[in-house]
C-alpha cells in the first residue's frame, strides 16, 4: 500500500470538509477499498473514515417504509428482525455477501457507492425501486447506477441512507463464482401492487440492469412456471473466462426462477 | 502518522504508526503477537481473523488507525493461563489441524461463530460459516468436528469467551 493519510470523520459536515484534501476517498467498511489499496489499484492521498458517524447507522422500519443507514453493516441488515418480518429477501441477500468477517465490516452504503458489477445490493436497490439518500439530495436507484463502478454521485457526495417501501413479495438468488463467490448472475424480484420489478447483477457489461423479458413474464403470473421457455438476450452481458454471455443469459433465467420460488416461500 | 490506542487481550496499548499500517502488522510487528497470521494477504483466507469489539474481522483488511479505540482479542488472548479455551482444546482433541497455519484464524472465527449462534450449531451451518477461512491440509472435516464439539462445551457452560 502506498502512503496515505487517515482521518476519522466525526460528522457528515466534517467528512465533506476533509474530502477536499488531495485525492481523498471515503472509507466505510473498507472491504473493497483496503484490498484495492493493498494491490495499488487505488492510491488515495487521504482516506476519510465514515464508520464513526452515528447518523449513518441503523435500520428503521415503520409500516412498510424502510430506511437503512448507509453505514449499516451486512451482518446488521442480515440480522434485523423488523426488516426480516417485512422484506426477508434483503436480509437473505445481506447474509450471503462475502463471508462472516466481511459482513461484520462491509456496509450497504459502501457497496452501492462502489457499484461493483457483481455486487448484490445494487440488484436489490433497483428491484425495490429504492431511493438513495445523500448528504445533498435524493436519487432514485434507477438513476443512481450508471455503469461499471460508476454512480450518479458527484465529487465528495456521501450516501447517507437508502429508503424503500417493502413489496408484498420479494426474493433473491445468485449463482456465486465457485472461487471468488461473487455473483456470476444474481436476480432480485419484487412484486407489489404496481407490478413486478426484476433486477440482475453479475451479468451485465454495464452493471446492474432490469430485465423487461422476465418482468413481462411474471406480471400476469408470479410463479417460477411462468418463466418456462423465457429467454433473455445475451447482448450486453459479460463474457469472460468464467462464463460466456450466452451461459450468463441462461443463468439469469434460472436465478430468476429460484428468486421467484424464494419470494413465494 | 497516527496515534493509536487499543485494548488488546485485556492490555491497554498505545503507539504511533504509519497510517497505512494494517491491524495485522500492528499486532505482529509492533506488539509481537505473531499468533495472528498473514496467509493470502488478499482478504480471502481468514488466517488473520481477530475479534474487534466482539466481532470476527480480517485484520489484514483493516488499518490499525481504523481499530484505534477498539477492544481486540487475538488467539493469544483466548487461553486462561495454561488452560486452553474450549475451542483450542477441541481442535487439539479432534486433530483439527495439520500444519497449523490457518488455525489461529479458524479458532477465532469458530469462537465468533458459536457466540453468534446461541441456539447451537449443526454441521451444515458450520461449513457455511467457514466460508471465510481456508485450510489447505485437513479437508475441513476435523475442523468441523472440533467446532461442533467445542460449541457443546461453550454453550453448556461457562460463557462466551472473547465475545
UniProtKB/TrEMBL annotation, chain A:
Pfam families per the UniProt record, alphabetical: FAD_binding_5 (PF00941)
Q: Which domain of life is it from?
A: Bacteria
Q: Does the keyword Oxidoreductase apply?
A: yes
In the UniProt record, does the keyword Signal occur? no
Domain FAD-binding PCMH-type, chain residue ranges per copy: 1-169
Q: Which SMART domains does the annotation name?
A: CO_deh_flav_C
Q: Mind listing the UniProt keywords for this protein, alphabetically?
A: FAD, Flavoprotein, Oxidoreductase
GO molecular function terms listed in the Swiss-Prot or TrEMBL record: FAD binding; oxidoreductase activity
Q: What is this protein called?
A: Xanthine dehydrogenase family protein subunit M
UniProtKB/TrEMBL annotation, chain B:
Is RNA-binding tagged as a keyword? no
Q: Where are the bilayer-spanning segments? A: none
* Pfam families, per the entry: Fer2, Fer2_2
Origin superkingdom: Bacteria
Domain named 2Fe-2S ferredoxin-type is located at 2-78
Q: Name one GO molecular function term.
A: 2 iron, 2 sulfur cluster binding
Keywords assigned = 2Fe-2S, Iron, Iron-sulfur, Metal-binding, Oxidoreductase
- Would the keyword Iron-sulfur turn up in this protein's UniProt record? yes
PANTHER family named in the record: OXIDOREDUCTASE WITH IRON-SULFUR SUBUNIT
State the protein's name: (2Fe-2S)-binding protein
Amino acid at each position: 500500500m502506498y502512503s496515505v493519510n487517515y482521518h476519522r470523520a466525526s460528522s457528515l459536515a466534517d467528512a465533506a470538509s476533509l474530502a477536499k484534501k488531495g485525492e481523498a476517498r471515503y472509507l466505510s467498511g473498507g472491504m473493497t477499498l483496503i484490498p484495492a489499496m493493498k494491490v495499488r489499484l487505488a492510491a488515495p492521498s487521504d482516506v476519510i473514515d465514515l464508520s464513526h458517524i452515528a447518523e449513518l447507522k441503523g435500520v428503521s422500519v415503520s409500516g412498510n417504509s424502510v430506511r437503512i443507514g448507509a453505514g449499516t453493516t451486512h451482518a446488521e441488515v442480515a440480522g434485523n428482525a423488523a426488516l426480516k418480518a417485512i422484506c426477508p429477501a434483503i436480509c437473505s441477500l445481506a447474509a450471503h455477501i462475502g463471508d462472516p468477517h466481511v459482513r461484520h465490516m462491509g456496509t450497504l452504503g459502501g457497496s452501492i457507492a462502489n457499484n461493483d458489477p457483481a455486487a448484490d445490493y445494487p440488484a436489490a436497490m433497483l428491484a425495490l425501486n429504492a431511493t438513495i439518500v445523500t448528504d445533498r439530495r435524493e436519487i432514485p436507484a434507477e438513476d443512481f447506477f450508471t455503469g461499471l463502478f460508476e454512480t450518479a454521485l458527484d465529487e465528495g457526495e456521501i450516501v447517507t441512507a437508502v429508503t424503500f417501501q417493502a413489496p408484498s413479495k420479494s426474493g433473491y438468488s445468485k449463482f456465486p463464482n465457485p472461487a471468488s463467490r461473487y455473483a456470476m448472475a444474481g436476480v432480485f424480484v419484487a412484486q407489489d401492487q404496481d407490478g413486478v420489478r426484476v433486477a440482475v447483477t453479475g451479468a451485465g457489461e454495464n452493471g446492474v440492469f432490469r430485465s423487461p423479458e422476465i418482468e413481462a413474464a411474471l406480471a400476469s403470473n408470479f410463479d417460477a412456471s411462468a418463466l418456462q421457455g423465457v429467454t433473455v438476450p445475451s447482448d450486453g452481458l459479460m463474457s469472460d473466462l468464467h462464463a460466456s454471455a450466452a451461459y450468463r443469459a441462461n443463468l439469469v433465467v434460472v436465478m430468476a426462477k429460484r428468486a421467484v420460488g424464494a419470494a413465494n416461500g | 502518522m497516527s496515534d493509536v490506542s487499543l485494548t488488546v487481550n485485556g492490555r491497554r496499548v498505545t503507539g504511533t504508526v504509519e497510517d497505512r499500517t494494517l491491524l495485522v502488522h500492528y499486532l505482529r510487528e509492533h506488539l509481537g503477537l505473531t499468533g495472528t497470521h498473514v496467509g493470502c494477504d488478499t482478504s480471502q483466507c481468514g488466517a488473520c481473523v481477530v475479534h474487534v469489539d466482539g466481532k470476527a474481522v480480517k485484520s489484514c483488511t483493516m488499518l490499525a488507525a481504523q481499530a484505534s479505540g477498539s477492544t481486540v482479542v487475538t488467539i493469544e488472548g483466548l487461553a486462561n493461563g495454561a488452560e486452553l479455551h474450549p475451542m483450542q482444546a477441541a481442535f487439539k482433541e479432534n486433530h483439527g489441524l495439520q500444519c497449523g497455519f490457518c488455525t489461529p484464524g479458524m479458532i477465532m472465527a469458530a469462537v465468533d461463530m458459536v457466540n453468534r449462534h446461541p441456539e447451537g450449531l449443526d454441521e451444515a451451518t458450520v461449513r457455511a460459516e467457514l466460508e471465510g477461512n481456508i485450510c489447505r491440509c485437513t479437508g475441513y472435516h476435523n475442523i468441523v468436528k472440533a467446532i461442533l464439539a467445542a460449541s457443546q462445551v461453550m454453550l453448556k457452560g461457562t460463557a462466551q469467551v472473547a465475545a
